[in-house]
Q: What sequence folds into this?
């Protein structure tokens, strides 16, 4: 799949149709389409509650052209693992012979917080399934509440920016590292602006002989407060500022990819964190003198995580 051109990829069957109710400019459908281009095998999808689920399955319609299960908020990984287990049992009995891949899509709230236990269990049990987190850094579907994926300083409806506090007080949880610590065959971070990098990683994840976890940064015009025609630009900026490095971990071995590999090699500029803040209304309050200590602390944390990542690729 990875060697296909964009033209050839566009000729693949449409697995997620247009006409859904996601906001204009939402990255979630872009990510789902890119991930599903990663295999030519049959795919069954489970989808945890969130924006993607409510917007693509409005009864009596569906945007899914593949077998699909809506799961509750906290059990997406368990549902997907159950599908894979049933498939293996049917295959063993000779009742099914085709190759089927299993993928669960979920938001950051469903992944980092509420479904973490089910996810950890499924990864540890070694199911051959892919879990994709569409990380828009908040509980968007219910009105932009902070999650443990929300970054320091971001204004949400439960981490307000005003005279008392300047947005969220905590850094985001490093969920990708938590998944690496499960010692599964494939873990990666992706961004929808780089379709080739994402499709290539999805392909590797589908081919892995065990669980795969992909964390996708998912710009949300509504919650991040930017115009809906800037989604891809914002996704790219996340990578260029090293807020969201692109990398993969194959059987425990780290490698930077795409723009992140070029930044590490000194072939592309690492942009300052202020570029990231200036592009989004959720950080508007950080562009003031009063916020300087937060901006400095944030830049230091981004640098620390980036340098740690580079060291891991050298092991
Ligand atoms: C157990 C449970 N708690 C709360 C909810 C309400 N709820 C539905 S979607 C959602 C937010 C989803 O956030 P996230 O997983 O980040 O996905 P997003 O909508 O941001 O894509 C919440 C809180 C629920 N459905 N089930
Ligand atoms: S609120 Fe954000 S995540 Fe939800 S549909 Fe709109 S743009 Fe997408
Ligand atoms: Mg979310």
A:
């Amino acid at each position: 799949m990875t060697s296909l051109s964009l033209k050839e990829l566009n000729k693949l069957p449409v697995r997620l149709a247009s006409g859904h109710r996601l906001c204009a400019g939402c990255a979630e459908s872009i990510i789902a389409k890119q991930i599903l281009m990663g295999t030519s095998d049959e795919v069954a999808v489970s989808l945890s509650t969130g924006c993607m689920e409510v917007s693509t399955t409005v009864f009596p319609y569906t945007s899914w052209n593949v077998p699909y299960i809506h799961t509750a908020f906290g059990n997406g990984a368990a549902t997907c693992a159950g599908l894979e287990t049933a498939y293996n049992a049917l295959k063993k009995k000779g009742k099914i012979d085709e190759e089927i891949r299993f993928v669960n899509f979920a938001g950051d709230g469903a992944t980092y917080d509420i479904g973490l236990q089910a996810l950890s269990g499924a990864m540890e049990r070694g199911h051959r399934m892919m879990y994709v987190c569409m990380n828009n850094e908040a509980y968007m579907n219910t009105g932009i509440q902070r999650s443990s994926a929300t970054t320091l300083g971001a204004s949400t409806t439960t981490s307000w920016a005003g005279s008392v506090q300047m947005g969220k007080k905590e850094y985001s949880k490093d969920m990708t590292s938590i998944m690496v610590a499960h010692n599964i065959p494939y873990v990666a971070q992706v961004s929808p602006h780089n379709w080739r990098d994402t499709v290539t990683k999805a392909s590797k994840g589908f081919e892995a002989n065990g669980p795969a976890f992909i964390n996708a940064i998912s710009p949300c015009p509504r919650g991040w407060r930017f115009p809906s025609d800037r989604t891809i630009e914002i996704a790219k900026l996340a990578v260029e500022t090293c807020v969201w490095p692109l990398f993969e971990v194959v059987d425990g071995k780290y490698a930077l990819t795409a723009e992140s590999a070029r930044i590490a090699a000194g072939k592309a500029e690492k942009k300052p964190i202020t570029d990231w803040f200036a592009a989004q209304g959720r950080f508007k309050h950080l562009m003031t003198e009063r916020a300087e200590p937060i901006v400095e602390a944030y830049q230091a944390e981004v640098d620390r995580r980036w340098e740690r990542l580079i060291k891991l690729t050298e092991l």
Observations:
- The CA atoms of residues 81 and 125 lie 9 Å apart.
- The longest strand covers residues 100-107.
- Strands lie at 42-48, 68-71, 100-107, 130-135, 186-190, 212-217, 247-250, 253-256.
